[in-house]
Amino acid sequence: MNIEAALTDLVGEPAKKLHTARSRNDQVSTDFRLWCRDAIDATIGCLKRLQVALLKLALKNEGLIIPGYTHLQRAQPVLLQHLLLAYVEQFERDVGRLQDCRERLNFCPLGACALAGTGLPIDRFMTSDALGFTAPLRNSIDAVSDRDFVLELLSANSIIAIHLSRLGEEWVLWATEEFGFITPSDSVSTGSSIMP
């Protein structure tokens, strides 16, 4: 209602046709899909930048041998490059999961209205195309009730969080006095109230 009121202030009476062949059901679902699509694109961009940073770090440390650990016990010597590239591989799978999710969610619910479509002569394919969707959703009831794409996106992001946590925890351990493999700069670390 607020959007319609603001639009009415801007363009007058034609704004009152905003809800023609639409309902809040298909509009909210469409907005949510657009938001998720943008979030996926942004996350993929971040993961790609992280992969490039890890590749650069690997190239900068060519031939550097470090101890490999299993359950915090020293196991075999490994190249730092090999370890860093393991994370590059994990993040590549994460990107693939996001791309798969994006492909499945990129269908347009507009025109499904409350749940049974409309008798008005609308062009759902034109609307879908204008918004960058692959096509309109085929079933109007599914179009307004489906939230599978959200669960899939949450799942993909949970896996990304596990990979990021693993990388972060490894570096936290490496920065401890016991390990002493890295010394973070003051720009990315702080002391505590009782420790230097």
From TrEMBL:
It comes from the Eukaryota. InterPro entries: Argininosuccinate_lyase, Fumarate_lyase_fam, Fumarate_lyase_N, L-Aspartase-like. Residues 4-196 form the Fumarate lyase N-terminal domain. One of its GO terms (cellular component) is cytosol. One of its GO terms (biological process) is L-arginine biosynthetic process via ornithine. One of its GO terms (molecular function) is argininosuccinate lyase activity. The keyword Repeat does not apply. Keywords: Lyase. Belongs to the lyase 1 family. Argininosuccinate lyase subfamily. PANTHER family: ARGININOSUCCINATE LYASE. This is Arginosuccinate lyase. It comes from Gentiana triflora. The lineage of its organism: Eukaryota, Viridiplantae, Streptophyta, Embryophyta, Tracheophyta. The gene is ASL.
